[in-house]
Amino acid sequence: MNVVTAQIDKAALIHNIRKIKELVPQAKIAAVVKANAYGHGLYLVANTLDPYVDGFAAARISEAMSLRDRGIKKPIILLEGFYEPNDVPLIAKYDLDTAVHDMEQVEAIEQAELDGPIKCWMKIDIGMHRLGASPEEVAEMKIRLEQCVNVQKPLGVISHLSVADTPSEYDYNAQQIDYFFKTASGFAGEKCLANSAGILKWPVSHTDWVRPGIILYGISPFAGTTGADFGLQPVMTLKSSLIAVRRVKRGAKVGYGAAWTAPEDTVIGIVATGYGDGYPRTAPNGTPVWVNGRMVPTAGHVCMDMLFVNLGPGAADQVGAPVILWGKEVPVEKIAALCGTIPYELVCRIMPRVNVECVG
Ligand SMILES: *Cc1c(COP(=O)(O)O)cnc(C)c1O
Prior knowledge:
This protein is α/β, with parallel strands linked by helices. The chain is built from eleven helices and 18 strands.
């Protein structure tokens, strides 16, 4: 029996990267594969995308080094730079590109003993206030990096949009893009700005390089929409099975905390997936689950290894019946919205005990 499987569809991944290339015909693409490729499997995703992209982007040096160790030869950008000076020689050894977002990092690069220069992307803060040189710091950081023998010339410039997915902040996003171009015009090297939302909604943000993450996986960055609205296909299908089917009487209190009471005599199914697999415990009563070809609602609190569904009074489903928690049949965007979170969190929270199966 399939207990719980994250099925990864390589054909969907290739479909999505082709779609992205149509949207950004002029730009180079760095596929964002941080956090185990958003829970989809780092090597599987990187190897599948390698022929279609110009490079990759990672959050941690460990992710980037393991891609190199597994034979990825294209540029790999460290989006947050590095966390300690000892990492600089590793960046050189592994031939990584690094963002440089503060003066401590500049100093570490200046002081490192390297055989040759490393490729740096100076990160500027255009409004998120997370990482990057503030407007007051830009000039000095740029001069220091441009004068540093350990930095390849020309110096690249990178930033990140904080509200490209937020319609109510349209003006703030436009202001960030404006400021990016004004500041970046002083740099001789390549520019890199757009995330998924920028790629889909803000062509002006495309620049030399783009960094798609969530749309690679067929998921929409915009609330109230799904990847299908943009011609994308979900790459992950989270599948399971019924491990028990039982009749309960009207008034039966189901699960921990008696969080659901049967409104009539009915049949409930027990699905072999819980929050210990990454299915969110915050899923409220009524969250849709695909069972045996139709949608049924969850009932009661999600447990660590199981969850309940109300199959309905006349249900004839048997133990072993197939279940889909999310995928083409049940958009993960919809589950996330019901749980008060974003689909990014759901897919990257898939737990190691979940079986990963590749198709396509
Ligand atoms: C995660 C990340 C991305 C990708 O964002 P998506 O919304 O998934 O496309 C791009 N750039 C940076 C700096 C990131 O941290």
